[in-house]
Amino acid sequence: MLDKYVCKACGVQYENSLEKPNECIICSEERQFISSKGQNWTTLESMIKEGQYKNTINIEEEGLYSINTCPSFGIGQTAYLIQDKNFNLLWDCISYIDEKTISKIEDLGGIDAIALSHPHYYSSQVEWAEAFNAPIYIHEDDQEWVMRPSERIVFWSGESLELKEGIILHRIGGHFKGGTVLEWKNGDNQSGILMTGDIIRVVADLSWVSFMYSYPNFIPLPETTVERISTRIKELKFARLYDAFHRVIKEEAKQNVLRSATRYMEALHGTLFNS
User: Tens digit of pLDDT for each residue in 195-227?
Assistant: First the structure.
């Protein structure tokens, strides 16, 4: 019997196969990890049948909803639904989707497009795209990490792509070569919101962010990469920032990202502290 297996560690769904894959390609490289308990798989059908999971959809502010799976599954990221001028965008994805989720989102106007920050959040993106008849936007630099191909996937190129007026994807790299952030110019009452996945990640002190090649394995990015990211960020319009784990910088987010980049580079350069 053919099944679309889902890696329990990262939540990414694979294309149909007769047998479980030997290992998850996403997890077996240095930016992720294979669980100490070994490689484990499930399917979306099994998750639904178990009745253990449900998605919660909560309004964060005007035009912005968060979508989370409870109990947490895979990496445990948050997906976001952005509503702007009769255009609904799903930013990043989660693995679990069922009829209740589809119905709730349909009540909010459905999904017109899906955009991804990087491969760790591809999850069951094709299931979402098919449920809402929506295209998926992924930067072409990360094409090799798509484990379930689909004609719905649009591999975009270049440094930016405007999906709708004021809703712009920017490839800034870093965590992945095609690492993408979303500039939503109309968010936060026209002040602008930046959605970052964990291409830029808010840390425990919510006034700072970090930039990493691998978060679970603590591999930093080089100084030149962070400097390039900082230069790109200066061009964007935002005062608020949401990352993949529901951490928010509510005010002066742009300034905080830039000063975080400076601190990061000083640490790498050996001028931040003496030890």
Answer: 999 999 999 999 999 999 999 999 999 999 999
Q: In the sheet where 167-171 sits, what is the strand order?
A: 160-164, 167-171, 180-184, 193-195, 240-242, 248-249
Query: Please, where are the H alpha helices in 124-222?
Result: 125-132
Contact (CB, 8 A) for 156 and 140? yes
Question: Which CATH fold would you assign to the domain 5-269?
Answer: Metallo-beta-lactamase; Chain A (3.60.15)
pLDDT attached to residue 274: 84
From the CB of residue 269, how many other CB atoms can be counted at a distance below 10 Å?
A: 9
The single residue listed with the structure tokens 């992924």 is: 138
Query: Which residues on neighbouring strands pair with residue 65, listed in sequence order?
Result: 59, 81
- Residues 6+ positions from 212 with CB-CB distance below 8 Å: 175, 198, 201, 218, 219, 220, 221
Q: What is the residue extent of each domain of the chain?
A: 5-269
pLDDT of 78 > 80? The answer is yes
Buried b (16+ CB within 10 A) or exposed e, 154-193: eebeeeebebbebbbbbbbbbbbebbbbbbbbbbbeeebb
Q: How far apart are CA 249 and CA 191, in angstroms?
A: 13
E strands present in 73-216: 79-84, 87-91, 113-115, 136-139, 153-156, 160-164, 167-171, 180-184, 193-195, 201-202, 209-210, 212-214
**Size of the chain in residues:** 275
pTM: 0.97
* Among 186, 191, 184, 202, residue whose Cα is nearest residue 244: 202
Contact 233, 254 (CB under 8 A): yes
